[in-house]
Amino acid sequence: MKAVHTDTQELLFGLDQEESAALSRPAQFAEYVVLFVPAGKGVFHADFSTTAFEGPVLLFATPFQLLRLEADEALPYFQLRFHGDFYCIEHHRAEVACNGSLFNNIYQQPFIPLSQDESLGFFQLITQLEAEFKQQAPSDMVLKAYLQLLLAKSSAIRQKTQERREDIPLPDDQMERFRQLLDQHYLTLHKPADYAELLAISPNHFTKKCNRYFGKSPSRLIQDRLVLEAKKQLHLTRKSIKEIAYALRFDDEFYFSRFFKKNTGVSPQTFRQRTGISIVADLSMQ
């Protein structure tokens, strides 16, 4: 892994070329992850989501998602990892539009299929990144500029892909309404039956429609929405674990910690320690 580290050797930014065997077993990283697979096909596992893909493709993951790359044959891929302390996607959301699109979106599959021309463009960009890494003293400014360009191009391609793909389910008013209801009530309504009642459909029909439309069960989406908010609070604020547990309507911080570890594999304290507290936390206090 070619990498830039802090004084304590925590990874801030890294780029390497691997084969799928490197992720054949589940792995977790404290950084955001972008995988560029130029060719071949396989299955990408991120926590409880499973995505079949065929290269060229970009795959995305957020800190501490449990990742695995499954393929019948060894697939060469580029793995790029960047820490929030190196490039804060929340702070730069206006420039790259990737927060809530490429990352931190529980409703969309974490991949972008590429055309051959788009794939060539990303290969050239990664080659430029590698060239900067080989410098005796790589420039953080240059690496951040390349990273910003890569994320901005990815966001733009995702938008175009959403517009041109034919296999995306047609808009479903009830499922889009569920998305709105979940964002409004995830703190208080934790059972699929609660949302089925609000949508005036049977729980079984609701579950089938949700699986077909989002590729996830209602239960999984409800859990993911709460975990996503917990991660945001841990990374983007300076609230204590106890304060976050209270804000998320948990009875106590110990129950919150058990819930968080069950869904992420790490405790809230470990997540915050490894991902750090974003500069956004201080900006919001000014």
TrEMBL record:
<feature type="domain" description="HTH araC/xylS-type">
    <location>
        <begin position="176"/>
        <end position="274"/>
    </location>
</feature>
<keyword id="KW-0805">Transcription regulation</keyword>
<dbReference type="Pfam" id="PF12833">
    <property type="entry name" value="HTH_18"/>
</dbReference>
<dbReference type="InterPro" id="IPR009057">
    <property type="entry name" value="Homeodomain-like_sf"/>
</dbReference>
<dbReference type="InterPro" id="IPR018060">
    <property type="entry name" value="HTH_AraC"/>
</dbReference>
<dbReference type="GO" id="GO:0043565">
    <property type="term" value="F:sequence-specific DNA binding"/>
</dbReference>
<dbReference type="GO" id="GO:0003700">
    <property type="term" value="F:DNA-binding transcription factor activity"/>
</dbReference>
<keyword id="KW-0804">Transcription</keyword>
<protein>
    <submittedName>
        <fullName>Helix-turn-helix domain-containing protein</fullName>
    </submittedName>
</protein>
<keyword id="KW-0238">DNA-binding</keyword>
